[in-house]
Amino acid sequence: MLLSNFKKMFLRRIDEREQVMYLIIGLGNPGKRYRFTRHNIGFMVLEKIAARWEIDFKHKSFDALWNRGKIDSINVLLAMPQTYMNLSGRSVKKLLAYFKADISNLIVIHDDLDLPFGTFRLKDGGGDAGHKGLKSIIESIGSADFMRVRMGIGKPPDKASVEDYVLRQFNSEESALLQPIIQLATEAVTKIVASGMQKAMAKYHTKNISNLKRRNN
User: Using an 8 Å Cβ cutoff, are 25 and 148 in contact?
Assistant: First the structure.
């Protein structure tokens, strides 16, 4: 009986790992203090994706909040590392190892100072561009060959340090435009999962707030 139960548990774990096709990571800092800051836009997009596909973050392990679900009938795992931004790679490494996910099917959503607010870009591979969360992931998993969704937050308008700027909340003008760009990014991630990065880039690479304004006028 004991052996039978152990066998069932073992087979369930194998099945659990095989179910993950895409590992989708949103980067940010845990806690209410950081929830609406620029650095947490990766969390915001991931939460929107989770709401769209009815995936709740009910598991807390691997240094992350996470759960499995489906996007367009394709098995995915959504995760928000809880290690703080600079140690995000620790969580990503554990998730990749346990679920046997392919690095080429890893999607990381993060804030990007080099893009103006209201824009986002899709990218396959590349360096960390000074982003400490990306740097941690690349160092931890030993590869930069994963997909990224770069969410533009712009550069500090004054002489404030970058560190202070990314930990500030979006201003009132930005906040009014935040949800439409998060929605576009959510659609882009869905397209990556359903059709691949190249088709997603062809459809969404030039989308930004200016496009939305013209469409709505």
Answer: no
- All residues at 6 or more sequence positions from 203 whose CB lies less than 8 Å from its CB, including other chains: 188, 191
Read off the pLDDT band of 205 (50, 70, 90).
confident
Residues with Cβ within 8 Å of residue 85, at least 6 apart in sequence: 27, 28, 29, 39, 132, 133, 136
Please answer whether residues 91 and 83 qualify as being in contact, where contact means their C-beta atoms are separated by less than 8 angstroms: yes
Give the pair of three-digit tokens for residue 185.
């990014």
pLDDT of residue 157: 82
Catalytic residue, candidates 39, 59, 110, 205: 39
Query: Domain 19-216, CATH 3.20.20.70 — does that match?
Result: no
- Inter-residue contact 150 to 121 (CB < 8 Å): yes
> Does position 198 have pLDDT exceeding 90, yes or no?
yes
Tokens of 114: 């080099």
59 is catalytic: no
Q: Is the pLDDT of residue 204 over 80?
A: yes
Q: In the numeric block, which tokens belong to residue 61?
A: 């392990």
For the chain, state the CA radius of gyration.
18
What is the distance between the alpha carbons of residues 105 and 193, in angstroms, rounded to a whole number? 9
Sketch the domain layout of the chain as residue ranges.
19-216
Three-state SS at 107: strand
pTM for the full model?
A: 0.89
